């Protein structure tokens, strides 16, 4: 279509046939000799790409496609991808380009400018160049892909490459400095610990991995790539300068059979033995003699060759630092047991102080035992506190009867803290796992005090219940709370007699919901010279209302158990009576006001739900 020929015509007398000799004209598909080409494709790179392209960028070529023929025609552009081993991704004018692209009717001397971009594949940074062909659309591309590319009569091609060296041309992306990451416990815990119970106190086994081991080992990256060194750095927390961690190696000595050792800077390229999965776990950081006890940061640093982009990311790689501790020193007892005096109150805390903070995580790792007479108190019936550098213990008053308290006063007792018993796996340790070398042991005496003259301090939980018709909210509710608790304290005072003394501190409303008010308070009860129980309310009760009767339901039982040979009334016995009464009925009614309705229901009730944490305060003569 569109071919034109000018020929000379001859007659062959011998063979009786016509002879044609083409002398001019125009032709295509294929182009005939002695004629002008209707289509003459030409391709060249009009804008060369940069030789420095980062892995997340594209190598961009600007192409100029021209028809140098004498007529308008159609052309095809296609890549030869047989050398695309790195699975490079090609895009032409923003669209994927893996087959061919046809350009219809490019006129004589007309040029088309197009942009081709090449993106890096999943593995390689250096790739073979790719040939790009521009040819007539009517001449087939031949058998592309089977190794027998048939070239048309009028083809034009260019080689796509951005890096040209003596070794040849390549499509090349800048290779970042290879990564070496944490592995094993370092990756899982993001910390490390060297203590007195470590497998070795001389060195720390370092575990790292090569995340690109399926492509090249660390040694191959050193020999064939940019990697120069892979070192371990450390510094004490709070310091600025990083130091090279060192390892101990043997030095060959041909004159002697033994191999002397020396410390050198760790280099995983030289000292690491990488397995088939990319893990390196044979490098040992020499601690003893090189690193004082303390808290440290460590990181791995990969260093590459000469700077390429000016971006540090491509010239080195560093892991995120992890923080660890080097500590071999076990805790020791510091000073004497507190209180310093030998005689201590039953409710007095015994405190042991140590030279450094302890592992106080619950459940506690240590045993505690207190022996007095034939009684043994342990973790089940002692109150134990572990905070910072201290362990405190106290007899749990909820396990003590009034009789038992009377029996052990004036008796010697022994305390032991640590591992108690042959089968015990308990221990006292500091926060870094260093174990106390020997148990803490001490003896003291429970002081004898005159209970009738002693005071008690205890914590109480108080509940006030109001029927809905008396329930108030907002500021009115707050005002009533103050009135209710004031009245409660007056009633408690009246129970002990006019001469008794009580104090309440730390009183606060803990919750309020649908007429139920819950309080917590610390109550101190001091004895009266003539303790007595009153069955009538305090005259100062501020809750008396015209529509209420006031009926006292305060404790009327004896403070001493019925089987006691003698009725003894004191603040300590009173606490135990309250405790047992609350435990038996889940509450102890302190006051109840009854409305004069036909049903006789209770409208206003105050009761204790629990009393605990009792402390004894000796009298003036103790």
Task: Walk me through this protein's architecture.
With 622 residues, the protein is mainly beta. The longest helix has 23 residues, at 474-496. The radius of gyration is 48 Å and the shape is elongated. The relative contact order is 0.07.
SSE order and pairing:
Elements lengths: L3 E9 L4 E11 L8 E2 L3 E7 L10 E10 L5 E8 L8 E4 L2 E2 L4 E6 L4 E9 L6 E2 L2 E7 L18 E6 L2 E3 L2 E5 L8 E2 L2 H5 L1 E4 L8 E7 L8 H7 L2 E10 L6 E2 L1 E5 L10 E5 L2 H4 L7 E8 L7 E11 L7 H4 E3 L3 E5 L16 E2 L5 E4 L13 E6 L2 E3 L4 E6 L2 E6 L6 H7 L3 E7 L21 E7 L8 E12 L7 H23 L4 E13 L2 E11 L21 E4 L19 H15 L2 E8 L6 E16 L5
Parallel strand pairs: 2-3, 17-26, 27-34
Antiparallel strand pairs: 1-2, 4-5, 5-10, 6-9, 6-12, 7-8, 7-10, 11-15, 12-13, 14-15, 16-18, 18-23, 19-20, 19-24, 21-22, 24-25, 24-26, 28-32, 29-30, 29-33, 31-32, 33-34, 35-37, 35-40, 36-37, 38-39, 39-40
The total strand number stands at: 40
Strand content: 35-45%
Separation of the first and last Cα atoms: 129 Å
Instruction: Kindly provide the radius of gyration, computed on alpha-carbon positions and rounded to a whole number of angstroms.
Output: 48 Å
Main β sheet profile: 6 strands, mixed
Mean pLDDT: 81
Structural class: mainly beta
Low-pLDDT ranges: 141-153, 468-473, 495-500, 530-567, 594-602
- Shape verdict: elongated
Helix content: 10-25%
Task: Output the number of helix runs.
Answer: 7
């Amino acid at each position: 279509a569109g071919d034109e020929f000018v020929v000379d015509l001859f007659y062959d007398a011998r063979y009786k046939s016509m002879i044609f000799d083409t002398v001019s004209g125009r032709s295509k598909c294929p182009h005939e000799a002695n004629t002008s080409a209707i289509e003459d494709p030409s391709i060249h790179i009009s804008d060369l790409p940069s030789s420095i392209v980062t892995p997340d960028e594209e190598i961009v070529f600007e192409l100029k496609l021209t028809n140098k023929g004498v007529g308008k025609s159609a052309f095809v552009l296609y890549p030869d991808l047989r050398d695309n081993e790195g699975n490079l991704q090609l895009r032409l004018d923003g669209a994927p380009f893996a087959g061919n692209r046809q350009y219809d009717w490019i006129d004589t001397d007309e040029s088309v400018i197009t942009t081709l971009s090449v993106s890096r594949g999943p593995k390689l940074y250096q790739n073979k160049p790719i040939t790009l062909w521009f040819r007539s659309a009517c001449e087939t591309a031949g058998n592309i892909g089977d190794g027998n590319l048939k070239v048309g009569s009028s083809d034009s091609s260019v080689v796509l490459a951005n890096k040209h060296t003596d070794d040849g041309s390549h499509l090349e992306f800048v290779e970042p400095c290879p990564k070496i990451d944490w592995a094993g416990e370092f990756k899982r815990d993001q910390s490390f610990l060297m203590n007195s119970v470590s497998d070795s106190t001389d060195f720390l086994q370092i575990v790292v991995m090569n995340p690109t081991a399926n492509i090249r080992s660390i040694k191959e990256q050193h020999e064939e790539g940019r990697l120069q060194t892979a070192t371990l750095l450390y510094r004490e927390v709070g310091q600025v300068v990083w130091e090279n961690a060192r390892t101990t190696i043997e030095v060959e000595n041909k004159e002697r059979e033994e191999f002397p050792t020396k410390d050198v800077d760790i280099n995983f390229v030289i000292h690491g033995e990488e397995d088939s999965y990319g893990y390196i776990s044979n490098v040992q950081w020499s601690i003893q003699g090189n690193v004082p006890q303390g808290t440290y940061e460590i990181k791995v640093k990969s260093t590459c060759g000469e700077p390429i982009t000016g971006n540090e990311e491509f010239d080195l790689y560093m892991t995120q630092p992890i923080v660890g501790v080097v500590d071999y020193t076990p805790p020791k007892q510091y000073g004497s047991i507190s209180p310093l005096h030998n005689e201590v109150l039953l409710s007095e805390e015994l405190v042991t102080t140590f030279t450094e903070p302890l592992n106080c995580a619950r459940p506690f790792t240590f045993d505690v035992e207190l022996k007095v007479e034939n009684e043994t108190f342990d973790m089940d019936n002692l109150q134990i506190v572990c905070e910072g550098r201290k362990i405190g213990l106290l007899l749990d008053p909820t396990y003590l009867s009034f009789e038992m308290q009377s029996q052990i006063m004036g008796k010697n007792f022994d305390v032991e803290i640590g591992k108690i018993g042959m089968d015990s796996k308990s221990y006292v340790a500091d926060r870094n796992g260093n174990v106390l070398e020997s148990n803490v042991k001490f003896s003291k005496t429970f002081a004898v005090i005159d209970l009738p003259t002693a005071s008690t301090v205890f914590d109480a939980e108080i509940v006030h219940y109001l029927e809905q018709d008396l329930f108030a909210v907002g500021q009115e509710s707050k005002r009533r709370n103050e009135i209710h608790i004031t009245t409660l304290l007056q009633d408690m005072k009246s129970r002990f007699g006019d001469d008794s003394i009580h104090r309440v501190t730390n009183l606060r409303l803990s919750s309020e919901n649908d007429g139920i008010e819950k309080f917590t308070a610390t109550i101190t009860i001091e004895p009266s010279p003539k303790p007595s129980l009153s069955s009538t309310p305090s005259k100062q009760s501020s809750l008396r209302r015209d529509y209420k009767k006031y009926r006292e339901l305060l404790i009327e039982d004896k403070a001493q158990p019925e089987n006691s040979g003698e009725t003894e009334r004191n603040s300590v016995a009173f606490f135990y009576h309250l405790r047992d009464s609350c435990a038996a009925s889940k509450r102890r009614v302190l006051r109840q006001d009854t409305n004069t309705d036909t049903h006789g229901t209770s409208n206003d009730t105050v009761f204790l739900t629990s009393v605990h944490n009792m402390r004894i305060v000796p009298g003036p003569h103790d």
